[in-house]
Amino acid sequence: MPPPKLPQDSTQLDTWREGISSHSPEETIALAKNLARLLPENTTLGLYGDLGSGKTTFVRGLASAWAITTPVTSPTYAIFTIHDGPQRQLIHMDAYRLNAPSESDSLVLWDLLREPWVLVVEWPEKLGDRLPEKHWALTLTCNNEDTRHLKLTHCNTCP
Ligand SMILES: Nc1ncnc2c1ncn2[C@@H]1O[C@H](COP(=O)(O)OP(=O)(O)OP(=O)(O)O)[C@@H](O)[C@H]1O
Ligand SMILES: [Mg+2]
Question: Around 22, how many Cα atoms within 13 Å sit in the side-chain half-sphere?
């Protein structure tokens, strides 16, 4: 099934706010490539959604859009992985294993950022008040085995 067609103008963000269905991992990757073009530099993107909802798959699409060639795998044990690419530094964090937001303080993450960066966080709710106030949030919902619903649920730096 081809990826859903998205308008090529400023209404694209409205489409993301309304929510978009994906019917396969490949479609989720194609959708991530679309959002990658809309996401400003030096922005944090929180990916909300249950286990297996497609968060890491979505990050693979972002990485591909920014010509990052290092493999994107689940960084659960390392908490975060830095991918330096020609267009963006992608910091992929999986906060699932944090027991408290304060545990992220020791990661010295903010010292490692090099502009233009994008910080993408799986399980951002685990960061509590450590999640930057200015961020975008995408919520992924499992509808059935292969269908996911992706919706931009928060965006306080959107145009
Ligand atoms: N439409 C879809 N979009 C994304 N993944 C899908 C879709 N349909 C099926 N899948 C499958 O769902 C799984 C998603 O796994 P993924 O690791 O991306 O989830 P996750 O949200 O990162 O999970 P976790 O919380 O464990 O890190 C993969 O096995 C993928 O093949
Ligand atoms: Mg994951």
Answer: 24
Domain that holds residue 146: 20-132+139-155
Q: Encode pLDDT of 48-60 as tens digits.
A: 999 999 999 999 9
CATH code, domain carrying 52: 3.40.50.300
Cα within 13 Å of Cα(133), Cβ side? 0
pLDDT tens track for 100-153 = 999 998 888 888 999 999 999 999 999 999 999 999 999 999 999 999 999 999
> Residue 49: CB within 6 Å of ligand 1?
yes
Strands 148-155 and 136-142: antiparallel
Task: Using the atom order of ligand 1, give the atom closest to the CA of residue 58.
Answer: 18
Among all bound ligands, the one having the nearest atom to the CA of 23 is 1
Number of domains making up the chain: 1
Q: Is residue 122 within 6 Å of ligand 1 at its C-beta?
A: yes
